[in-house]
Design goal:
Keywords: Disulfide bond, Signal. This is FCRL3 protein. GO terms for molecular function: transmembrane signaling receptor activity. By secondary structure, this protein is mostly beta strands. It has a single domain, classed as Immunoglobulins (Immunoglobulin-like, Sandwich), CATH 2.60.40. The protein is 0% helix and 45% strand. The protein has strands spanning 3-4, 14-18, 21-22, 24-25, 31-35, 43-47, 50-55, 59-61, 66-72, 81-84, 89-93, 106-108. The protein has a 5-stranded mixed sheet with strand order 4-10-9-6-7, with no helix packed on it. Strands 1-2-5-8 form a 4-stranded antiparallel sheet, with no helix packed on it. The two termini are 24 Å apart.
Amino acid sequence: SWCPLSPAGAQTTQLLVEPPWTPAVLWDKVTLICQDLGATGATIWYKDGKHWGQNRHDRFTVTESGTYMCDRFGIGLSLPVRVLDGPLVLQVPTWALLEGDTVTLRCRR
């Protein structure tokens, strides 16, 4: 399933990550999906705070580590998503958790 990195309604443009773990890691073959509230047009991508490209694709598979954001047709920037390429990472689910919830952590190498 696709899971937003921020609660619904917090941003008009949301950057979703699949698989739904954070931080995302390159060796998971991470796909980023830029969503909005119905805007049509080009998706503008940013990597490490710089304009990275503009195209009609609202999703892609990440091939480089970095911090990604997107904007759908000038609606507004999404929250950032970090994609790492480290040897060891502790991951948590991207969905919202409340105090008292049971959570599964993944320590991966």
